[in-house]
């Protein structure tokens, strides 16, 4: 018998340490970074205000820059200053706005590798996905720059700046993308840095935009303390929110009371149904992709709804695929000059989230869920002695109990759950378990069956055997039920959401008074 292969000792890829990234930030944007902290940007100036919190990288628990938290009074000053910028910017000719945003994109492109490296350290994205997040932001905004004229024809900017409050998982391709398109459409923009990570990446992106004269405001603080300024303040023209249902519900109540324009993206339990299906090779191929970024995204698919008669064939296709997934430090290599590593999964956002997921899985199993797969920690690739508290091995459970959060809510981590059904009615009920979702997929061989069942699935986008996502450029995005409040976005709808059109215009979206789907959805 051959002797066991020794596991190589790993090291950090050369030039990718947090200290390397921070040193580069100080050199590229000294106005926005100071010693060991970032600054807030408001009133067209960088300010060393706020109380900088300690923060740790999910990659290895080491210190990184924390958000400099403002109090409510200072946040109100920042909002008033943004309104002053807005009143000037809304009259800047479109050609000049295009030029300034295009110059920002050129600067982001020049520093794309640094922005991606910051995402690795701050939110644990593997290098491939960190690069993709930066590139999607740049490419997406460039599409708007090239085609903005017909989108704003007959429309005017809002009366006040757009306030952006977003989760930590896509700082560039969601938050920075939205900010730059909002500015291109004639609005000043405000963003609150996510509490859980991404502050240095966003600070660098904001610095590059501010240098080009784009009216951006970037502030940090607790959502509760700043909500009066960033959500309820009369100066705010629109609130754009990406996050969970609990926080989103509070924001929705506030904007509804005030009659304020809003775009509120909240999570739903996105499901993948299997019904009269035989193309198992296609399923095997897609399963690893569904674990991108540890399923820490609003369009992840954490729930499979499987026809009971097909369960054995489903497992034969699913389990070999999920067993290929490997967890590891996103920058750990055998030799310092090796190419970037390609782990399937890095850490989740922090050790507290890792513990929450482990506790939820343990509780679900204790109450009757059947564990079908658990990744092996011994297969993970780490640096010697590093902190691994934020890493979670992929887990698959059959039939989580109704009392478990895993039964009815998105886990936001690498945990799949499976429920079995016997009838089409049960299939639809299980796929609609969360009162609305952003995406869903139905795998069935018969196109007519898909066409008949898909309209009964309460998701904005429903794929036929293929995953759906937020999409880019002209692809529209929204949600059904409690997964979305306010105007839909994507394509020209993103511009319409942050501009005013003809009197009495009804924007496509999910509002208390009406639900209107865009014709191209």
From TrEMBL:
InterPro entries: Ald_DH/histidinol_DH, Ald_DH_C, Ald_DH_N, Aldehyde_DH_dom. It is an enzyme of class 1 (oxidoreductase). The keyword Oxidoreductase applies. The keyword Zinc-finger does not apply. PANTHER family: ALDEHYDE DEHYDROGENASE-RELATED. Its EC number is 1.2.1.88. Keywords: Oxidoreductase. It comes from the Bacteria. It holds the Pfam family Aldedh. GO terms for molecular function: L-glutamate gamma-semialdehyde dehydrogenase activity. This is 1-pyrroline-5-carboxylate dehydrogenase.
